[in-house]
Design a protein that fits this description.
The protein has three helices and eight strands, in the order αβββββαββαβ. By secondary structure, the chain is mostly beta strands. The strands form three sheets. Strands 5-2-1-8 form a four-stranded antiparallel beta sheet, covered by helices on one side. Strands 3-4 form a two-stranded antiparallel ribbon.
Length: 171
């Protein structure tokens, strides 16, 4: 009968081990709920169907990196034993957070998906935060003429290096 190591090695095709007395990894401080000053360092986008094709959106994913300006900020977190702990923000400098952003697209006469323009408030706010202008224009929607904000398609060039505040919380 095979032992656990044989089964593990057969499945992974690789061996692993631990060296007693080896230097342990640096203590990891968990992220604290709060606001981190950061810069966008990566971005990507793709067009996706949303809600089983009811809507279509461009999904932006991005990574922000906590900036040096956090060093003197105070943060509180709960450690693994449930005890509250306080720390300065210097432990978070260089740490990365991931985010996503939705830009719901407007259907043309050929499309079968619906408009979800009310879902674009976060995208508009993001554009304003990074300094990308959203001009106002009047559009005929149904029987009404409505003032709308035109939302640009952001590119990596528009986003990379921009200063933002990353809000970290559960959910």
């Amino acid at each position: 009968m095979a032992n656990v190591n044989d089964v593990f090695d057969d499945v992974t095709g690789k061996q692993s081990f631990f060296i007693p007395g080896a230097k342990k990894k640096q203590e990891i401080i968990p992220f604290a709920k709060g606001e981190y000053l950061a810069h966008i360092i990566e971005s990507d986008s793709k067009v996706v169907d949303v809600n089983k094709g009811e809507f279509r959106a461009e999904l932006f994913t991005y990574v922000v990196e906590a900036a040096e300006e956090n060093k003197d900020k105070d943060f509180s977190y709960t450690d693994i034993t449930g005890n509250p702990c306080d720390t300065k923000g210097d432990v978070y400098i260089g740490r990365k957070f991931r985010g996503k952003l939705w830009r719901f697209l407007e259907p043309t006469k050929k499309d079968t998906f619906k408009s979800n323009s009310s879902g674009n408030s976060g995208y508009m706010r993001f554009c304003e935060i990074i300094g990308v202008e959203c001009p106002t224009e009047k559009k005929e929607i149904g029987d009404d003429v409505v003032e709308v904000k035109l939302l640009p398609t952001l590119t990596a060039k528009d986003m990379l290096g921009k200063a933002v505040t990353a809000v970290v919380d559960k959910g």
